[in-house]
Each structure stands twice: as C-alpha cells, then as structure tokens.
Design a protein that fits this description.
16 helices; alpha/beta; 11 strands; Spore Coat Polysaccharide Biosynthesis Protein SpsA, Chain A; about 475 residues; globular; 3-stranded mixed sheet; single chain
Length: about 475
C-alpha cells in the first residue's frame, strides 16, 4: 500500500486532516490550539494592573489578602495529600472471565523508539487475552525510518499492524493516536508507550471494571510504576512521585467519584465514549490530563484498577527537565481551556469536581512555580536572625514538607519498594527543580506552545519484574 508492506497502513490525507484538525473544528472552545481567548488575556491584564495598583496604594492590606489566599490554597493541598496518604487501602480488582473477551485495541505511539520496539511487543505478547480478540497498532511517523523498520520486523502476527502517519504538525502523541483511532476495531481501547511493560492481567482487570461499573464509566486508569528507580537520584525521586500519585491520590479521587488527570499511558476506554468526546486534542501536550477532565464535563466517570504498568523514569536532569516542562506546559494549556468559561465548566462537571480540579491542576501549577522561591526563603529564614516569615507561615511550609515526606513513606506500604524511603529523605531538595521546569514551560507556552519534547527510552537498566498471579501485583 503506497509502496509499504502489507502489514503497514498509511494514513490518508483526509484521515490525517481529521486527526490534526477534527477536534478543533468540532470543539473549538475545548481545543488548546488557541492559547488564550481575548477575554482571558484581558482578565489577566486587569488582574495584574489591579494587583499592582493595590500594592502601590495599600501594600499592607494587599499583602495580607494575598497571604490569606496562599494560606487557604496550601492548607487545602496539604490536607488533600495527608488524607490521601492516610487513606491507604489496596485497590481490589476482579478479573473478567476468560470467556468474556470482546475485541480490544491497543494503541502504541512510537517515535525514535527503534531500540525498544521489540521489548514492547514482547511485553504485549504476555498479555492474558486471546490473540484473536486483540487489535494492536504500532503507530509510526513516516520520517522515522529506524522505528518503522523495527515495527515492521516486530509485526509478525495477525493481530499486529503498523500505522504510518505522515509527518505533519502538530508533531504530537495525541495526533498519532487520533490517526489510528479511526481504524480501531475494538470495543475497548488502551494506550501503551514504547517502554511500557503492562501486567499480563491488566486488560481482564479493566474489562471487569467496566462490567461492574456504571454505564457512564468511560475510562479506567492502571497505575504506573517505575522499574529503574535505582538508576539515579532523579529516577528514585520520580519513582516516589509516581507511587504517591497512582497509589494514593488517584485512588482517593476515584473513590470520591471526582475527576482526575489521567496518566499518559495505561488508560483504558470504552471506545464509543472516547469517540463521543472527540478523541484526543492534538494541540494539548498533556492530552491525558485534558481528556480526564473533558470526560467529566460530558458526564462520564473514571476509575482505577490494580494491575500496574512498569515504566522507565528519566535518569538525567536534562531528560527530566524536558519532560517535566512539557507536563507543566500541558497543565497550563488544560487549565486555561477549562477556564475559558469557568461557569460553564463548573456546571458541566459539578461544583465539587470543579473545585477539586482547581486544587489538583491549578494548585499543582502554582506549586511548581513557588517551590524554588519557597525553598530559598525557608533556607534564609532558618539561617537568618531576621523574621522573613511569620511563625504560622514557617509552620505551614514545614507541614507541607513533612506531609509530602510522609506520603512517600506510606507509599512503601502499598508498593513494597523501600527505595521510596531513601527518596523521602532528600525529597525537599527535589521539589525546587520544578521551578526551573515551570519557567521553561512558561517560555515554551509563549513561544513553542505545541512543541513535544521527546523523552528517550531504553537508556538505563530496568529491574526484572516478577509478576504474581493475583491482580494486586
């Protein structure tokens, strides 16, 4: 087909145009293609002007009001983390019976991943699911010759196909997913990244969750676990972060029936619900976070399951910085989309869900920018004889650090990974790095809003995974 082997299908022009622009045409008010609406830019300018005027004319009351707002935000964030860490309970997952095997599509977007394609296919072949019911699509861009060759070599079974996407902007993962979604044959669809090693029973666990869930359950998220955490200090911190997020925070939000930002991989969808909300936004560089909240706006629910997917963390500061800056940039995109019409967003997802979104998503953005300055102020306050912080502010900041360290320690109880203890002891030195990433994210949001910083995989030794037979593994 177009000069490619029979196992390869090239995406046509119309299909590609729909993958790139279909979502924006159908849902312009939800697309991140446009960074700011005029009303948002005006509101930001008015806020900055009013704040500057208030600081100049009445500095003390203005600073008091800002301090009160900061107290409320950070107290709420600390309490949420504390409740999530103290609310430990294993996620129990039933497995669907072997006879219940509807068609399942697996989408695997690949770019510059030639060195790990074979490992990915090997991991997918371990899935406990009939091959006749699987529809695995390896998605490759046509200018990535090495990955294309590796994908064609690995696609040696009837349930494996290679989807070739013409290299066209935006060069993003969600564009590639949209291009392949139109040809998906499954009733359910899941996304795996190139370095993923999913638990063999994950598809059956997701299917059982859909069977047991309400009709509006559109997505179930499997936890992501890091299997190269000993490769470096950065990787160890990253592993602890994931243990807290996927082992504590997301299960809490799911139990409260509140929406949450999805992980970038191992999210399982009812394909009809996914298509109903428009698929992925190709211009949002954290399409997972965007989709989690967009599902909630349309009345759908998300849940979590237990069988994990093992992933590779960045091992160098440069790799971590590029990835984290992309995440923060995407969260800024997602928050601004939700805030184009905040009244409408609150009405669609519910007031409680909207408030929690502000805390989880908006609060996370704010925290990324203030971690560095806060760490500097705390250090100076601890060493200086001058009172740079009030006792209550100092106590609140220290409480935040203590609760976060406590969260990492309690994550050991669920994961059994005692390296999280080592990470917890130096975690306060890790958080200020987020400010560097946030500043880079802001720069890219202004000048390169849709640029996708690619994370290299297959660069470190990964721990062998001994999979147990139960669904808690």
């Amino acid at each position: 087909m177009d000069g490619f082997p029979s196992k390869a299908t090239r995406v046509g022009d119309a299909q590609l145009d729909d993958a790139c622009n279909g979502f924006q045409r159908a849902h312009p008010h939800r697309s991140a293609k446009r960074r700011l609406y005029f009303t948002q830019a005006l509101a930001i300018a008015l806020f900055i002007g009013a704040l500057g005027f208030a600081l100049a004319s009445a500095p003390r009351p203005t600073l008091a009001a800002l301090s009160a707002g900061a107290y409320v935000l950070f107290t709420a964030a600390i309490l949420l983390r504390l409740f999530a860490a103290a609310h430990l309970r294993p996620v129990l997952t039933r497995l669907a019976a072997p006879a219940q095997t509807p068609a399942y599509t697996i989408l695997c977007p690949l770019y510059r991943e030639a060195n790990v394609v074979a490992d990915l296919v090997t991991a997918l072949e371990r899935l406990d699911y009939p091959r006749t019911a699987l529809d695995i699509k390896l998605i490759v861009e046509d200018d990535d010759a090495d990955t294309l060759a590796a994908a064609l070599a690995a696609a040696n079974a009837a349930h494996l196909d290679v989807i070739i996407v013409p290299a066209r902007r935006p060069r993003t993962k969600p564009k590639a997913l949209n291009a392949a979604l139109s040809s998906a044959r499954g009733d359910y669809v899941v996304i795996y990244d190139a370095e993923d090693r999913p638990h063999p029973q994950q598809l059956r666990a997701a299917l059982a969750a859909f069977e047991d869930g309400a009709p509006n359950l559109a997505c179930v998220q499997a936890p992501l676990a890091i299997d190269n955490g000993e490769a470096s200090w950065i990787a160890r911190q990253f592993a602890a972060e994931y243990a807290i997020l996927f082992g504590e925070l997301l299960p809490l939000l799911a139990s409260l029936r509140l929406p949450f930002p999805l992980g970038g991989t191992s999210n399982h969808f009812r394909i009809n619900a996914l298509r109903a909300v428009g698929g992925w936004d190709p211009y949002n560089v954290t399409e997972d976070a965007d989709l989690g909240y967009r599902l909630a706006r349309d009345g759908y629910a998300s849940a979590v399951i237990a069988p994990p997917t093992y992933e590779e963390a960045p091992v160098t500061f440069g790799a971590w910085l590029a990835q984290r800056a992309r995440w923060i940039k995407g969260h800024i995109q997602t928050w601004l989309v939700l805030m184009r019409d905040p009244v409408r967003s609150a009405r669609e997802m519910g007031l409680g869900a909207f408030a929690m979104m502000q805390l989880v998503l908006g609060g996370g953005i704010v925290a990324a920018f203030v971690h560095g300055p806060l760490a500097f102020i705390l250090l100076i306050a601890a060493l200086s004889p001058y009172d740079l912080l009030s006792p209550s502010a100092f106590a609140l900041a220290m409480a935040g650090y203590c609760v976060a360290v406590f969260s990492a320690l309690t994550a050991v109880a669920l994961s059994g990974n005692f390296s999280h203890v080592r990470a917890a002891l130096t975690m306060p030195f890790y958080w200020p790095l987020a400010t560097i990433a946030a500043l880079r994210a802001l720069f890219e949001f202004i000048f390169k809003p849709h640029h996708w910083a690619k994370t290299a995989h297959g660069v470190s030794r990964r721990k062998p995974i001994a999979v147990r037979g139960d669904a808690r593994a």
